[in-house]
Automatic annotation (TrEMBL):
It comes from Hyunsoonleella flava. This is DUF4007 family protein. It comes from the Bacteria. Residues 10-289 form the DUF4007 domain.
Length: 291
């Protein structure tokens, strides 16, 4: 599983996937210095008791608040009423940013595991194949405390978060997962035979600004980054956004044409993205959102 001493978390959401308005609601709640353990949290947030702890879980998982329930830089920049890029998540780029932070933060383990590793080994999968995969890892990784039931519930939450059920249904349905619109998770088969897959594709609906932000936010990347590592590394754009090579090349050429000081070289078969001087990650988003 790569890095040492990972803390795995497969619970905390009380089996609720993150709903459309929860992050904004939760963000406003912590900005008012309120505490999730307060007696009136249920009233203030307008949800049931279990949902209060679920909202708190998702705020951490999406990197909106830190471990002390204080807003992160990313949380402020996205949800703040004054300076926020897109407090009500009307721009699809905001959903891609949330997806990126969910995987990269690793607070909820399943997202990093599925996007960075599992889907590369299993193109088609279901709850059973995922549980078995983790079981196998748990045998050689003592940090992974494995409870089959918990992991199975966690998988259901994952599919509900990404599954796009909106075909012909009311998109405003507050029960659909917050990331269903970016269409990363596809299904094949029905009922017992249902399989899920995350196919690498061009992702024309993914902004190159989000891809550049993701590259700049990756501490493993220096000023010269090989195409291979952009495609395959843990938390690379290829891994997190399920981009195929053509899609990645398209995003790179868009980035290079829009930003000074960034070039793509191909010398003696070594393809690299190169930064003369790295721009600050949020400056890229400032530009995208016109801030």
């Amino acid at each position: 599983m790569g890095s040492q001493n990972i803390k795995y978390t497969f619970s905390g959401h009380d089996s609720f996937q993150c709903r459309q308005l929860w992050l904004k609601k939760g963000y406003d709640y912590v900005v008012e210095n309120r505490n999730f353990n307060d007696e009136d949290a249920v009233v203030q947030l307008g949800v049931g008791k279990n949902m209060v702890s679920s909202i708190r879980f998702w705020l951490k998982a999406f990197n909106i608040v830190d471990n002390n329930d204080l807003p992160t830089e990313f949380g402020k920049r996205l949800f703040d009423d004054e300076i926020g890029y897109d407090p009500f998540l009307e721009d699809e780029a905001s959903l891609w940013l949330l997806h990126f932070n969910l995987v990269k933060t690793g607070f909820a383990s399943i997202y990093s595991i599925i996007f960075n590793e599992f889907r590369k080994e299993k193109l088609f999968f279901n709850k059973e194949t995922y549980v078995n995969y983790l079981k196998r890892i748990a045998e050689s990784d003592s940090d992974l405390n494995f409870n089959e039931n918990t992991v199975a519930k966690d998988f259901n939450v994952f599919t509900n978060l990404y599954k796009n059920e909106s075909k012909g249904k009311n998109i405003e349905d507050s029960f659909s997962g917050i990331l269903s619109e970016i269409e990363l998770l596809s299904t094949a088969g029905k009922g017992k035979d249902e399989q899920f897959y995350i196919e690498n594709s061009e992702r024309d609906n993914l902004s190159e600004y989000v891809v550049l932000y993701a590259i700049l936010e990756n501490v493993d990347y220096g000023n010269s980054i090989s195409l291979n590592s952009l495609e395959f590394n843990i938390n690379s754009p290829g891994s997190i956004f399920a981009l195929n090579r053509l899609g990645l090349m398209n995003k790179i050429s868009e980035i290079v044409s829009e930003f000074d000081g960034i070039t793509f070289t191909d010398q003696a078969g070594i393809k690299e993205l190169q930064f003369k001087n790295k721009v600050e990650a949020f400056k890229v988003l400032d530009k995208y959102y016109g801030k």
